[in-house]
């Protein structure tokens, strides 16, 4: 399982001034090289009010100067955690190119307009799926889920507009720190971390691997 990681490093001199810009560069490379399956898949870790952690994979659907956006059910465990404790960690595990990006920050719900605009881009079946599933709740059987979907499909056949579920929408994670990790030889990896300063600027620090 042990692998020697590639030699090309990450140097302070080549970093963008802003972590979202640097993320954009790496994301483009992850997507281009084809070596990363679903480069927008990220592990979101939350903790409840007592500090109990939970992690799961979600798809990042947008990123901009304000942060990283994903969509989910507002009744799900992650959303309940975030309502109690907005602190969150995101991890992009880009093993195929010996990189990872780790973000810490706080999550806020996206506005309803932004949520609706994204919901409209989803395939009809996924729109119905968002209605059919009370995410993270216990259900009796698969049949119950399929029956809920079938009922919705009868109500909203293909071509019919599906309303945005009120309990479904986005979260935008505003970063407080963003670490860019590049695997290198002999476990002497590069780790450069942007940390937000109170005045809105970013400090970059190098971490020991
Ligand atoms: C590749 C992949 C992508 C996923 N994308 C999403 C997503 O964008 N939104 C979402 O709510 N769940 C997504 N899931 C499912 C979540 O991992 C998780 O099962 C679900 O959100 C419930 O999590 P929770 O009970 O911790 O809230 C994805 C799972 C995988 C494996």
Automatic annotation (TrEMBL):
Pyridoxamine 5'-phosphate oxidase N-terminal domain sequence ranges: 35-154
Role this protein plays: Catalyzes the oxidation of either pyridoxine 5'-phosphate (PNP) or pyridoxamine 5'-phosphate (PMP) into pyridoxal 5'-phosphate (PLP).
Protein name as it appears in the record: Pyridoxine/pyridoxamine 5'-phosphate oxidase
Gene name of the encoded protein: pdxH
SUPFAM superfamilies tied to this protein: FMN-binding split barrel
Xref: PROSITE patterns: PYRIDOX_OXIDASE
Keywords tagged on the record: Flavoprotein, FMN, Oxidoreductase, Pyridoxine biosynthesis
InterPro entries cross-referenced by the UniProt entry: Pyridox_Oxase, Pyridox_Oxase_CS, Pyridox_Oxase_N, Pyridoxamine_oxidase_dimer_C, Split_barrel_FMN-bd
One GO term of the biological process aspect: pyridoxine biosynthetic process
A Gene Ontology molecular function term of the record: FMN binding
Chain positions recorded as FMN binding sites: 56-61, 71-72, 77-78, 100, 135-136, 181, 191
Gene3D superfamilies: Electron Transport, Fmn-binding Protein, Chain A
The enzyme's E.C. designation: 1.4.3.5
Family: Belongs to the pyridoxamine 5'-phosphate oxidase family.
């Amino acid at each position: 399982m042990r692998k020697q990681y590639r030699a090309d490093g990450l140097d302070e001199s080549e970093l963008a001034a802003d972590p979202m810009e640097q993320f954009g560069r790496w994301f483009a490379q992850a997507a281009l090289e084809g070596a990363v399956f679903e480069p927008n898949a990220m592990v979101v870790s939350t903790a409840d009010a007592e500090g109990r952690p939970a992690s799961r994979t979600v798809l990042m659907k947008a990123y901009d100067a304000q942060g990283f956006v994903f969509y989910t059910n507002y009744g799900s465990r992650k959303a309940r955690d975030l309502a109690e404790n907005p602190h969150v960690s995101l991890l992009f595990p880009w093993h195929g190119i010996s990189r990872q990006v780790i973000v810490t920050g706080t999550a806020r719900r996206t506005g309803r307009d932004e949520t609706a605009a994204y919901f409209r881009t989803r395939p009809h079946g996924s729109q119905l799926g968002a209605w059919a599933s009370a995410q993270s709740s216990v259900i009796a059987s698969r049949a119950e889920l399929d029956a809920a979907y079938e009922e919705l499909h009868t109500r909203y056949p293909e071509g019919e507009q599906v309303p945005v579920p009120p309990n479904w929408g986005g979260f935008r994670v505003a970063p407080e720190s963003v670490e860019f990790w590049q695997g290198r030889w002999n476990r002497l990896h590069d780790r450069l971390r942007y940390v937000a300063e109170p005045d809105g600027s970013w400090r970059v620090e190098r971490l020991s691997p």
